[in-house]
Amino acid sequence: MLTAGRELWGDHGWAAVTMRGVCARANLNDRYFYESFPDVEALLLAVYDEALQELVARTERAMTEAPATPEAQLRAVIGAFVHTLADDPRGARIGLVDPAGSAALEQRRRATYHVCAELSLAAVKPYLRPGADERKLRWDALFSLGGLGELVLTWLTGSLEATAEEIVEHLVTVVLRVGIPHLRELRET
């Protein structure tokens, strides 16, 4: 049912995901839906979480393969994010476009941004300069994540002419600019 929900949502938007539509797409009797999910919103949250888990897994793989410097790690994370969404338009729609309009999905999206910001903070902690203001670093992380998502969304919808690599390099440059005041060592040597 998750696959059917993802296909419907990715192709037509979350509002097109109905119990009957999911069951028809999955070739299942309607009763199976409620054996797995209490309502459509629960299915949508499960689909969102699954798409997020795939993105996180790909990002973590990229980070383990990258050199252990702030810039290389950042490039790996942003590259994985951009390429994962470019390779999976359905996942991009689920993660970036469609949460608006559903209170539960919008709340999950916001919570996801905060979790990503906290993960970012944990990743850069070894590189913080003495006396770095972690509160402002958290603000900058949220700012960067929001801008990153919006730029990638604009690019994926065809409103911005660029290659994936141009998007990655630009985002790395912008996020590095935001991070400079907080980090003691930034560039690879």
TrEMBL record:
GO terms for molecular function: DNA-binding transcription factor activity; transcription cis-regulatory region binding. Residues 18-37 bind DNA. Gene3D superfamilies: Tetracycline Repressor, domain 2. SUPFAM superfamilies: Homeodomain-like. Residues 1-55 form the HTH tetR-type domain. InterPro entries: Homeodomain-like_sf (IPR009057), HTH-type_TetR-like_transc_reg (IPR050109), HTH_TetR (IPR001647). Keywords: DNA-binding. Pfam families: TetR_N. PANTHER family: HTH-TYPE TRANSCRIPTIONAL REGULATOR PKSA, HTH-TYPE TRANSCRIPTIONAL REGULATOR RUTR. This is Transcriptional regulator, TetR family. It comes from Cryptosporangium aurantiacum.
